[in-house]
Structure prediction request, 151 residues.
Amino acid sequence: MFSLMQVADEMFLFPTIYTYSCFFFLKLDPYLTSHLCRSSGKPSQIYRMALSTNMAASLVLFSLLLLHFTQAEELMSIDGAPSPSPQAQPIDCGIACEGRCGLSKRPNLCKRSCGSCCKRCKCVPPGTSGNYEACPCYANLTTRKNARKCP
Prediction:
């Protein structure tokens, strides 16, 4: 003799055999009948619901697994990459321009124009003149008449 739960399990495995067996379960256990036999009385609906529940559970599991591997890959790329070099120290424009304008005939004008160029370009070429290739931005700044703005 089968127990009530074994028959219910068999219904999930073979839903077409037990298509209209709700009346049988109603006499045995009304609580089980309310769960097995929904509004239409077909256990195939329960079978579909079990499949959709399994599908939803596997989708959630797949999403968590994908999230785990994505985070692991990010950690590997962070740890495997060499650390970036520290940012360059900000230049002290006053000291740099004092050195640049040391031999100028008009040191105040030179320091003022050098200071504005230094603030914009964040660099000053070495030496008292020339060496513009060391700081291309400094060399490219010009006045309205296309003369070099920076000394």
Remarks:
- The helical segments are 4-13, 22-28, 30-36, 43-80, 93-100, 107-121, 136-140.
- The mean pLDDT is 72.
